[in-house]
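Lecture 7 notes. Example A: sequence first, then its structure tokens.
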Amino acid sequence: MQLSELGLDRWFADPAREQCGSDLSAARITAVDRGRYLVRDEHGERPAELTGRLQFAAESSIDLPCVGDWVCVRCLDARSHASIHGVLPRKSFLRRKVPGKDVDFQMIAANIDVAFVIQACHFDFNVRRLERYLVMVREGHVEPVLLLTKTDLVDAGELDALIGEIRAAGIESEIVTLSIVTGAGLDRVRELLIPGKTYCLLGSSGVGKTTLINRLSGDSGLETGDVSHTGEGRHTTTRRQLVVLEGGALLVDMPGMRELGMLGVSEGLDDTFADIGELAKSCRFTDCGHSSEPGCAVRAAIERHDLSEDRLRDYLKLRKESAFHDLSYVERRKKDREFGRLVQSATKHKAKRRGE
């Protein structure tokens, strides 16, 4: 397999030559599991580990490789394994706030062309969660396509109502309705898959991501769980992995996400709620909070029924959450830098005393 078939296009070619030089070669991260890596190049796939220098130089987790990254590697012991020396610049990325109370980024995948955001019609459908996914996807400069799965579990009227809810929320991305049971919609998904391009599946556990990959790749054998009585699959994907589909497209399978916290998503918010941003330009005050301020164009649009109250509430909630986490992240990074300078100063002082 050529590197171009793994997604190495002109955008990556020059950085790869410059950064890897003649001593190293380019490879792509195909799996990450608890700090362990798999990389793939034209000679095949092999385990790899980070060099100490790369780990030491990383200021945060976002500087470390994730699935989909292009990296500079040195193959060792007849290509049985490799060492990772550097990460090439990313064309796009997917990241979120780490689950729980900590305020930091968690890298999900990199260099994704299209993200299939999946929701099941029967048990998982939630427009508010869908908006969160779209904010994350657009923040990383990834094109979203929405997949509504398990359409065999609802009738035509219910399906139309679900699509209507999505459109009423101002979401204009392409929607593909899909049933793995009947095969409806699979041909459209296959049409969207272009050889050499990278795609990913985003969604909650049990919506059928791994089953879809198996159908698209000719039932390649990725493990799936039984389906429960509610129609919800029992999710079995435990790590992110990049697979090459039968037609030559590349697809990232990943565990479902229980939490999707907002951190560093100002651009994604602006893109996802572009209608509110456009209205806000006509507000009397530039710092309008769109609550009770006089001359608020956003409130006026709600009164005219051109904008729903729910959509504004969702936007304000996500903006507030992101602002809170952004501030906490900045404060944490400041403390980390101060601690780093303190350690560096103490080390230098200790070395100086030894030399006296």
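Example B, a different protein, same format:
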Amino acid sequence: MAQNKRILLHLAHPGGKELDYIRQAFEDDWIAPLGPNVDGFEEDLKEFLGGEKEILAVSSGTAAVHLGLIGCGVQAGDEVLVQSFTFCASVNPVLYLGAKPILVESEKDTWNMDPDLLEEALIDRIKRTGRTPKAIVPVSLYGMPYQADKIMKMADRYGIPVVEDCAEGLGSRFEGQALGTFGRFGVLSFNGNKMITTSGGGALICPDPETKARMLYFATQARGPFHYYQHEDLGYNYRLSNVCAGIGRGQMLVAGEHISHHQRVAKLYAYLLKDIPGITVHGNPSPRIDSNFWLSTIVLDPQLRVQGQESIGEPPGPSAPNANVLALIRQLDKAGIETRPFWKPMHLQPLYHDAPFYGNSDCVSENLFKTGLCLPSGPRVSEEDVKAVCNMIGDLCR
């Protein structure tokens, strides 16, 4: 199949007003880190999320996770329960603080933190250490909401704050409520490939103005309220710039369109791939769950034989995706189609080899890592692009 253009996984798509906000920042000499665009972007996000939470715009989603853990009182030696099936930015800030990540396996429906295994981990950690973990970090993998009701009830029962990692979940909802507004803190990312972008950036969703002010203190080098520079706590340079926030303000004007586009693309993939044996498209597992489908994802049956699979062979153990996935990535790439394997679970990463992991015989995340593939889904991916991708997958898998 010849392609006139390369179909990329996810490219940022301007809404048309971003340059207006950036130009205004230059005209008003607000090139410095803070300014009207930062305030306006925070208000735009607050309104988008329902108007009840406070927003702190920061330099990245990773910075937001870090600040959220600080806000939960995590210190060196503490334990933090984190979803294992995620990108490393969900877990690395635990190490920044000298704390210990406790990794929890995913469940089959949402692919996110398994509430039953979470409770098993909680009971065992309290028994082993005599201390309650300091925070819980569930993740909305590829935009799919986690079981927010069960996780929040458990967190309340044990008195543990939740930092919702919704870096991939802007616009996703559980029972109609926006992700990031259930826990004590929520995290958003505006990296170049996210639902909206500020080039690079993120946001911390805070419960109230007082907490936001406290987190702002840590995000601005923990400078004390004096006419001179005095620092009593360790702070960080985590604030989003006024220029980047201008991009975000323009992106917020089309955020709803972007989310609707991703959801339409996901439905089209599901329709076009439904009759191809051995291909399963991940969709909302129940009416309570409404994913933004940041990335559309498929799972390949291990018995499937993709063209070119025999030239790859079977990679040893759980260290890499299986030959089917690698063959499909390679063949689609030759046809001008970019895809991506699933995140490698943290309990399989060398960095977290010694971290306690609570899983079961289902091995959900390991199996998904070996058999899963992310498909082009961004705002620049047209319906014709989706059809071309599906036709190519069909040709390679029959």
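Note on Example B: The mean pLDDT is 95. Residues 255-273 form the longest helix (19 residues).
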